[in-house]
Write a structure and sequence with these properties.
about 240 residues; mainly alpha; 2 domains; three-stranded antiparallel β-sheet; elongated
């Protein structure tokens, strides 16, 4: 499924952008909006792919990256867009997405980002990913399932919430909860689907418990019929 990336209308009047050449602006915009980007602002990208998708030669790309320093870096096959997370907002769901996205970034890339003195105090990182050279201040902020679901409790019955938590909070042998193993995770959509499925299951269960209107070719009679009324019924 295609991703959506939104660009501020003030992009073209930004002092940094105004000072770039037309080709550097083009590359900057491409690096923000191409299909390989990820929510944390760090994603894998080879020179060959960039060359094919932009139509620029590798030598041109390398020179243009020099012009983008301070905003975008190319580090051993990975792109880092410095201000991506600055514009994400404070939503807990966004923080979860960033944490999940960061989980695929190699420790050596995180170390290189630290070495060039890029500040990313807004980033949530799994502790096992941190290279030894990284500051302890980058300890991950883990948002557990119960905290994620807290804003949604008023929209669903307590039984639905508890069943959802029991299912998705189950841990595997490595201590990972079921929801953490999913490639994508949007708790609002997951909970809505859970509610819909629950209603469907309960409806199907109720159908199985219903007795047929007719059995063995005989008509069902209302229980309140009198003897006189019964004699008038033809079987």
């Amino acid at each position: 499924m295609a991703k959506r990336r939104f660009i501020n209308t003030k992009f073209w009047s930004d002092d940094f952008i105004v000072g770039l050449s037309p080709l550097a602006r083009y590359l900057f915009l491409y690096l923000l909006t191409n299909e390989h980007t990820d929510i944390c602002g760090i994603y894998e990208m080879s020179w060959r792919v960039m060359e094919r998708e932009t139509g620029l030669k590798v030598t041109q790309l390398q020179k243009l990256f020099e012009d983008l320093k301070g905003k975008i870096y190319y580090l051993d096959g990975w792109i880092y867009t410095v201000n991506t997370q600055k514009h994400l907002g404070e939503s807990p769901l966004v923080a979860i997405g960033v944490e999940r996205s960061m989980s695929v970034v190699p420790p050596n890339i995180l170390a290189k980002i630290k070495e060039i003195d890029i500040q990313y105090d807004r980033v949530s990182i799994h502790s096992e990913q941190l290279a030894p050279s990284l500051s302890p201040s980058l300890t991950p902020v883990y948002i557990d399932l119960e905290k994620q679901i807290e804003p949604l409790r008023g929209k669903y019955a307590p039984s639905v919430i508890e069943e959802f938590l029991l299912h998705w909070g189950e841990k595997n042998s490595k201590g990972k909860e079921r929801w953490q193993l999913e490639k994508t995770w949007e708790i609002e959509k997951r909970l809505a689907k859970w509610q819909k499925n629950k209603e469907k299951w309960e409806y199907e269960k109720s159908l199985k418990g219903m007795k047929p209107v007719q059995e063995s070719g005989r008509r069902e009679l209302p229980a309140e019929m009198t003897n006189a009324e019964l004699t008038a019924v033809n079987f």
